[in-house]
Amino acid sequence: MTKEFPKNFLWGGAVAAHQIEGAYDADGRGLSCADVMTAGSNGVEREITDGIVSGKYYPNHEAIDFYHHYKEDIKLFQELGLKAFRTSISWSRIFPNGDDELPNEAGLQFYDALFDELLANGIEPVITLSHFEIPYHLYTEYGGFRNKKLIDFFVKYAKTVMTRYQHKVKYWMTFNEINNQADGQSALHVWTNSAVKIADDENKEEVVFQAALNELIASAKVVKLGHEINPDFQIGCMMAYVPIYAYSCSPLDAMAAVKVMERRYFYSDIHARGHIPRYTLKYWEKQGYQMDYSADELQALADGTVDYIGFSYYMSNAETTIAELDGQMISDFPNAKMTKNPYIKASDWGWQIDPVGLRYVLNAVYERYEKPLFIVENGFGAYDKKEADGSVHDDYRIDYLRAHIEQMEKAVNEDGVELMGYTPWGVIDIVSFGSGEMEKRYGMIYVDKDNQGNGTLARSKKDSFAWYHDIIDHNGLEE
Ligand code: P53
């Protein structure tokens, strides 16, 4: 049996505008939610400040200054052999306040130039519309996606860019990792997904469900509109799939895992099937949540189902009801908690490395929706050591990626999963989303910059660069 991937498989690399571009106030760009996030560190969450506070360090303001380096970076991507490059459009470059009457022409021109450069190098752009950087003004003025006015602002923004770039971009995604906010546990996730802050006396879960539903409605409207602009568009959703296994074969653990996964599937179920799942309606009823949605909005969900499921995969987790085990309660299933999986090892940041989990997810999601899948993030955040001669021997990253590609290959060739492509995360080193560090590196291209913001920003190739080049060249693993 061949170990090759389908013809036209999109081997690529992925980043997001706020983690790479910098130039946060250049050419009329407005402030975004990512611009008020300070640097945290391993295990220490980033602070969300009220506007920009002087004396604090905001790593996304400069990031790796891709805004001014994109030509040399794309040259490296071309040398690496990338067929696709996933990035996002910074919404506040286009509509600096989010609610402006007219778009900012300078912002539009930047992406024209970027997409032209990619296409000239034979690289297909894969574009996320909202990757953790909603215009900050939409928070201060409207309270973020809890407010239904944001649906119209998002649709207007999407219409503007989809119309402008209709002959340059074919692959789109609406909201990045929309389900990160599922548990409402982390203030950072609710902030970056929805531009929402939750007051102490509010019901967190209810607020997040409403904001998420508003995003899902906005997304569905954009899918429909996008197909009207250009019927060739492929428009997907973007999910963080972190499968949560049953810890044991206790029937209660199996059921607990189903219930905790429903909370995540809620998002892709609506994106892919076009209606609110019955388990969610029952849950809202039980909790007495009064969700605000109209018959027209339900129709919009039905009319705007996605063409494919884009997703990130980094790790898995386990759920148990066994009293003796420690863990964090993240669902209302009686006595259920998320616990450590003893069969797998974790990265330095505690992310549990599980290549077989990728095959598991590909199967589970394909069975659920029977739509093409696209792995738009996967990778290994690690400390790298730059040697005196400038080289970086990142064999641990090669091992991680190889193990995941092996499982991906089985899903495609043995299990029959339809897979469009693979764009590993942070193909070039970028600012970490969760911690704001530069030294949690994912790249095959090293960027000389540290956690404090010092460095020349010079780019150089790591060992994984040549390795990934060969994978792409062979359209898969060598036999
Ligand atoms: P950093 C959780 C679980 C899986 C993916 O993350 C996640 C998260 C968020 O904490 O985020 C995605 O940089 C996200 C990217 C991000 C990447 O994973 O914290 O889409 O923006 O950079 C890696 O190591």
Helix-strand layout with pairing:
Elements: E1 10-14, H1 17-20, H2 66-80, E2 84-88, H3 91-94, H4 105-120, E3 124-130, H5 136-142, H6 149-164, E4 171-175, H7 187-194, H8 204-229, E5 234-240, E6 244-246, H9 251-273, H10 278-287, H11 295-303, E7 308-312, E8 317-320, E9 337-339, H12 355-369, E10 373-377, H13 395-413, E11 419-422, E12 445-447, E13 459-461, H14 463-473
Helix pairs in contact: 2-4, 6-8, 8-11, 12-13
Residues 16, 19, 176-177, 180, 240, 242, 312, 314, 377, 381, 425, 432-435, 440 line the site of 2-(hydroxymethyl)phenyl 6-O-phosphono-beta-D-glucopyranoside.
GO biological process, one term: carbohydrate catabolic process
Active site: 377 (nucleophile)
GO molecular function, one term: beta-glucosidase activity
General description of the model:
The chain contains 14 helices and 13 strands. The chain is of the alpha/beta class. It has a single domain, classed as Glycosidases (TIM Barrel, Alpha-Beta Barrel), CATH 3.20.20.80. The strands form three sheets. The protein has an eight-stranded parallel β-barrel with strand order 1-2-3-4-5-7-10-11, surrounded by four helices. A three-stranded mixed beta sheet has the order 6-8-9, with helices on one face. It has a two-stranded antiparallel sheet with strand order 12-13. It is globular, with a radius of gyration of 21 Å. 2-(hydroxymethyl)phenyl 6-O-phosphono-beta-D-glucopyranoside binds next to loops.
